[in-house]
Design brief:
- The N and C termini lie far apart (57 Å).
- The chain contains 15 helices and 11 strands.
- The chain is an alpha/beta fold and 455 residues long.
- The protein is globular, with a radius of gyration of 23 Å.
- The strands form 2 sheets. A 7-stranded mixed β-sheet has the order 1-7-6-5-4-2-3, sandwiched between helices.
- Helix 4 packs across helix 12, helix 6 crosses helix 7 and helix 13 runs parallel beside helix 15.
- The protein has 3 domains: 65 residues, no CATH class; 263 residues, Type I PLP-dependent aspartate aminotransferase-like (Major domain) (Aspartate Aminotransferase, domain 2); 95 residues, Aspartate Aminotransferase, domain 1 (Alpha-Beta Complex), CATH 3.90.1150.
- The protein is 42% helix and 12% strand.
- The structure holds pyridoxal-5'-phosphate.
Amino acid sequence: MHGFDDDTEKLAQEIVELALERIRMSPPPLDGPRKASVLQGIVGETISSTGIGAEKALQLFFNVLARSCTTLSHPRNFAAVPSAPTNESVLFDLMVSAASIFGGAWAGGAGAIFAENQVLRWLADEAGFPETAGGTFVQGGTLGILSALVAGRTKAQAARQGDAPKVWKIAVSAEAHFATAESARVMGCEILELPVDANHRVTGELLRETLSAADTDGLFAVVASAGTTNLGAIDDLDGIAQVCEERGLWFHVDGAYGFPGILAPSTRHLFMGIARADSFVVDPHKWLFSPYDACALVYRDIEDGSRAHAYSDVYITALHPEPVDPREEFDPKNYAVQLSRRARGLPLWFSLAANGTAAYANAVEKTLGVARSAAEEIRRRDYLELLMDPTLTVIVFKRIGWQMKDYLALNKRLFTSEIAWFMPTVVDGEPVARLITVNPGTTLGDFNTVFDAMR
Ligand SMILES: Cc1ncc(COP(=O)(O)O)c(C=O)c1O
């Protein structure tokens, strides 16, 4: 298993060839899930004392298991938040595995961490963060938000010098992704729910009003969305930053999906105020064209991260017997809820280094453009009704006369025939169709396929 012989060579060729076959497909099939009992019938038991052999396991994966996963990068995958990794990022992901890098500490992954940190610096610069900024790549937005909020609470705890409130609280709107509510639950915090305006945004004014009427003892953080999952709405970041500064609250921006909109000239202005945040996250596996999984967590002051997350144990003190300058030897483990870590920022690093940041800005602008064209197309069709102009790349609209069951039935038909996948949602109490793209390969024709099917 560990020596490299002729069989390994043959297996390597086969795996690389099959991976290439998949990458060459343009587009790959949409595929979709099968029930476990169906898979059990086709695949049978694969784990046994003697093994089934690499050849059989590989064929099972390529022909059955991989085909029983939905292709998030399909151009007509309009559901949840899909994905659209570049060729460079996917190919380089193979290299990251082959290099077997421990990305948790500089001693194990210096070169990889150095490259990742250049990407984090680019993101920090786009946000307008100062030189003190920095962060780490974690598994996903949920873990990034949790880690940022733990940093915020650590700061608040220090400020109260042991005078703990009855309960710590986090302010966020119901439009925000449930990752914040999940983080609050894990941290034993309460949610203070913020209202939104007619455009589904939290504004500085609404925040100020809400906080002056609420019991804010223990409130330590406000989470704003820079691109809600449901609608792509961007909160009034500047107004919220103002209130957070006045009240000494940690200001976190959830840009897991929407942050890349800052790269596009047409939407950059919507992010005004993000430079005043204490932390933000963005998921490269969403709209930064990387494979699963990665979340960039960036602190405005990197030391806020280490004050909350730096820890040690006897077996690990040998990493740094003497204190080190984190600008020279940076340990990602000290900045989030993590220790062992895949260097999951590397696929993005390679693709960015290869293609340049301008290519990323263009690709993001392209997806914004196709979303706007799709919105125009909806306006042209008399049986459809656009609910609002898309802020980013989420489009919500009604098929006149339809109920939730009609959207679900159409989606089932399109999905099971591998034509498209979308998820209806509810806006202001009404069931509506929701289509999102982050894929520069998605065309107006792809959207029209769904619109036509609704006729
Ligand atoms: C706005 C937003 N925040 C957070 C998350 C959670 O991110 P992850 O799924 O990477 O944990 C998502 C996921 O879709 C999201 O859209």
